[in-house]
């Protein structure tokens, strides 16, 4: 009698087919979630790749960033490890945004390291901070990748400051305008042409179809 009771207990502990099916479905759902998450994140980064080959110019009072001809595009980029091994050039300056604890160096406009997939990208044709009434344009990835230096830029608001260290001076800018645009291959930059400005561009958080533009005006210049 005792042996039969133990056998009955063992049988009752077996997992039912229905429970097995439920567990299997949960595993598939969780796996699908992580696969879709990786895909979305990769799309978030890839949709910004076009900024690696852009040119800045002004048309009818509106600054426009447009794709340049293929021969003017930057060289192909590698992995983070490849970049670390090949970078021997010194930074030209630094961008600091206290609100999001960002401090990142940038390279000259004509440098091979001036590439959105490696570093902050200084848009070709933009003006350095020491040019009066000029516009210094910096683009970078958002998202979760190692090169998403603007991942927290969405937290920046009007009135916040951004500091560009360049040529032995600190140029302090105040954010005056923030707006989004649909990604069409160009970006209209609406700024006060009587002011010296800094423009920051990145993908809009949680919206793969739009990009966000931050306009900041120069408010102070001090020795670094």
What can you tell me about this protein's structure?
- The protein has 224 residues and is α+β, with helices and mostly antiparallel strands.
- 21% of the residues lie in helices and 33% in strands.
- It has helices at residues 2-12, 17-46, 80-86, and strands at 54-59, 62-67, 93-97, 102-106, 121-122, 135-139, 161-166, 169-182, 187-189, 197-203, 210-223.
- It has an eight-stranded mixed β-sheet with strand order 4-3-7-8-11-10-6-5, with no helix packed on it.
- A hairpin with a 2-residue loop joins strand 1 (54-59) and strand 2.
- The protein is elongated.
Question: How are the elements arranged and paired?
Answer:
Blueprint: H1 2-12, H2 17-46, E1 54-59, E2 62-67, H3 80-86, E3 93-97, E4 102-106, E5 121-122, E6 135-139, E7 161-166, E8 169-182, E9 187-189, E10 197-203, E11 210-223
Parallel strand pairs: 6-10
Antiparallel strand pairs: 1-2, 2-9, 3-4, 3-7, 5-6, 7-8, 8-11, 10-11
Structural class of the helix and strand makeup? alpha+beta
Order of helices and strands: HHEEHEEEEEEEEE
Largest sheet, spatial ordering of strands: 4-3-7-8-11-10-6-5
Average per-residue pLDDT, rounded, comes to 77
Q: How many strands?
A: 11
Q: Per DSSP, what share of the residues sits in E-state strands of 2 or more residues?
A: 25-35%
Helix content estimate? 10-25%
Radius of gyration over alpha carbons?
A: 25 Å
Give me the oligomer status.
single chain
Cα end-to-end separation:
90 Å
Low-pLDDT stretches are 34-50, 67-86
Main beta-sheet annotation? 8 strands, mixed
Broad shape: elongated
Counted by DSSP, the helix tally is 3
């Amino acid at each position: 009698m005792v042996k039969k009771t133990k056998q009955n207990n063992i049988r009752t502990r077996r997992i039912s087919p229905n429970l097995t099916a439920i567990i299997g479905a949960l595993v598939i759902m969780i796996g699908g979630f992580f696969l879709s998450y990786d895909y979305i994140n990769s799309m978030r980064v890839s949709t910004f790749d076009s900024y690696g080959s852009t040119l800045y110019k002004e048309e009818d009072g509106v600054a426009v960033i447009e794709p340049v001809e293929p021969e003017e595009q930057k060289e192909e980029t590698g992995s983070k490890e490849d970049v670390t091994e090949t970078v021997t050039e010194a930074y030209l300056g630094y961008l600091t945004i206290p609100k999001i604890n960002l401090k990142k160096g940038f390279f000259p406009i004509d440098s091979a390291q001036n590439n959105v997939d490696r570093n902050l990208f200084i848009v070709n044709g933009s003006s350095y901070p020491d040019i009066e009434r000029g516009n210094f344009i910096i683009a970078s990835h958002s998202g979760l990748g190692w090169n998403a230096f603007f991942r927290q830029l969405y937290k920046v608001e009007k009135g916040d400051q951004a500091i560009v260290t360049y040529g032995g001076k600190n140029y302090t800018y105040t954010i005056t305008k923030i707006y989004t645009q649909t990604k069409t291959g160009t970006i209209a930059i609406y700024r006060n042409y009587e002011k010296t400005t800094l423009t920051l561009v990145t993908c809009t958080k949680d919206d793969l179809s739009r990009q966000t533009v931050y306009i900041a005006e120069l408010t102070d210049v001090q020795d670094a």
